[in-house]
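From the shared-data thread, chain only:
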Amino acid sequence: MNRLARPATWVLLPLAAAAALAAVAAGVATPRVVVLLVLAPLAEEIVFRLGVQEALLRRGWSAARTTVLTALAFAAAHILVRGDPGAAAVALPALALGAVYARTRRVAPCVALHAAMNAVWLAWGLAGAA
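Structure, as tokens:
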């Protein structure tokens, strides 16, 4: 694992766990928290980083090109699932996730970062509801 990826993973995971506890304490349904902070980051990073992006990288495509195309595919999937064109905004954080994967070729830091991003999004929503 990249020397930078391991510390980031160990910092981000406890932050996401703290956000999960705060969300549950604030009344967010536990299944939703589990989906947002565990299942979705794990499943999506397996599909989009280990699946799409890795396949493109192995075909000799550049890291920049695979990062952009994977981010666009990630956004398209979110638009289709949510039925909301505003879901395209996930392309921006997906670019960061893709850059981490292109640099490390490891999914764990991507899952941790994805969970942390979802935790921030969840906290932002809770702050707006207060």
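Residues 5-19+31-129 form one domain.
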